[in-house]
Amino acid sequence: MTLSNTPALIPLIFLGTAALIPIIASRKNWIAFPFSLLASLISVFISIYNILLVLQKGSVRYFFGGWAPPIGIEYVLDPFSAFIVLVINSIAFLVLIHSKRVVENEHPDRRTPYYAVVMLMLCGFNGIVLTGDFFNLYVFLEISSLALYGMIAIGEKKSPIAAFRYLIMGTIGASFYLLGTGFLFMATGSLNMADIKMILPNIYQEHTVIVGLILMVIGMAIKMAMFPLHGWLPDSYTYAPSSTAALVAPTGTKIGAYVIIRILFFIFGVSFVSKMLPLTQVLGWLAAIGIIYGSIMAIAQKEMKRMLAYSSIAQVGYIGLGIGLANPLGLIGAVLHVMNHALMKACLFLVAGNFRTKLGHSNINRFTDSIRKQMPWTTAAFAVASLSMVGLPPTVGFFSKWYLALGTIKNSNWIFLAVILISSLLNAVYFFRILEKIYLRPPDAEKDRTEKIKKSEAYPSMLVPTIILAIAILVIGLLNAFIVKGIIQKIIPGGMG
Questions:
Q1: pTM of the entire structure?
Q2: CB-based contact 77:54 (threshold 8 Å)
Q3: DSSP 187-248
Q4: Number of H helices and number of E strands within the chain?
Q5: Peptide bond preceding 70: is omega within 30 degrees of 0, i.e. cis?
Q6: How many CB atoms lie within 10 A of CB 52?
Q7: Would you state the pLDDT for residue 460?
Q8: Would you say 63 and 72 are in contact if contact means Cβ atoms under 8 Å apart?
């Protein structure tokens, strides 16, 4: 265990940037974008340094104000938190590059408050992952949630209603989590995660502990949008600004998944949550239902962003399924899918943003083969991300599903294995219908086949991050073995066999 201040740097950078943007960009709002982009870039470099430090020296801790836990608040960097922080900040940086044109196009007069709120959201996300204190986690949860409500509300005409629905559901989720934290504090007398982990084996049978755990998991399941607690997600992703959807969809629900994994396997322990209190089994079955439900609903959508929203419900289900398996292969699949889905869904939402900026819409029924000729690189990125969502090798989507499938086989859970296979077929249905429209010319098309369509690709600042994500989907897929062996296998907690 190493003591260092590096765990606290990233949340402080985002918090400081959020406070400075309204001051420095009060009259020249164009300054807000480069300032926030610089903060994001610095956070990526620090995230890379942190994960290398953790892999080399082990867990890193920081005590705020010099007060050692359990009295003080500590931040902890271990392989799990360092990995998630790197994923969040890397995706956020690429999406922020893309957001410049989108924000200028959709809400140019709100650039200063928008980027300030984005910094607050990223501060909250990073704080949730890094903190080692349950109540401090709640504080960061509220910071990120309040920022998200505002980011969603400035979208289309229906976005304030979607934001209000998310506010109600998010407040309920945060309240459940806070109540659960209160029950744990009553039983243990501590809020520090490491301290509570040491106390719990002596008081597992107490009702306050069991109720507290259930409340916390329900609260974070709402934030994770796990079926049937997903009601806030479809409208939020559909009606939010394109830049907000591209930022939240790859990262927002993963925060809830991170907290659930941390609580179940790292604090309470695998044996308790899978045998003494079969909570993981309940999560696994709900996730399996959510996978099928989200996939079927995605097929029925005509708007691309809404299709991707329901697809996210299904993809979150894969992570929940890995948690429910409660074995090393399942956890590897779940954690790997956190990264893989972030890459895939960020790429797909950036593509949707490119379509909306250049075509003026992302309505699936209006897609034709002319889009491929007009925006060849954007459609190519969409094809790569779509094939990855279906789970075709060597894309990243194949490998997380592969580990999940191996986890179901190890548990002899053939129903879950069937769910993974069926959902891949359903994914193919709703993605291939778009690929068909884009890449295949209808046989009865009346247009002259010699007609030349002028190329009008997305702006470079929008196209470059889209292509980078598409390339990453392929490259990281090929390098998945190094990531699993070098990082994710170090995440597996003791007692999970």
A1: 0.92
A2: yes
A3: HHS--BHHHHHHHGGGTTT-HHHHHHHHHHHHHHHHHHT-TTS-TTHHHHHHHS-HHHHHHH
A4: 21, 3
A5: yes
A6: 12
A7: 85
A8: yes
